[in-house]
Model the fold of this input.
Amino acid sequence: MTSHLDDVLHNPLRPEQLYATLARWLDLPPPADQAPDEPLPPRWRRACIDADVQEYERALARQDTANMLHFSHRAKGAALVLHADQVAELADRLELAARGYASLQPDDIQRTLAALKVAIARHFD
Done:
């Protein structure tokens, strides 16, 4: 019987394991000539935030508030770490709406998502 835990990362976390796992899940080529202790390349950072936004959109389509909250929070956190302030602000709006603290109508959510994607593109391109 298989454990299906091939992608579990254990402490201490080794960067090369992280890179390999992210490459498998995000379908990215491995970084060329990159030392294991260097930060993730920009294309990987963007891919992580893009993946969170896509998951948020899937949750929104299902009206899955728990996952809307989860993925908007993750996108906000990643944006803050990467100093993408506009991205973080827009992800925060989505998070506050998912928590019920901000009243966003469906059209407002779609406009915020569109603005979020533009802000991501501006920051990473």
Remarks:
- The two ends are 45 Å apart (CA to CA).
- The helical segments are 15-26, 42-62, 65-81, 85-99, 106-124.
- Residues 42-124 form one domain.
- The mean pLDDT is 83.
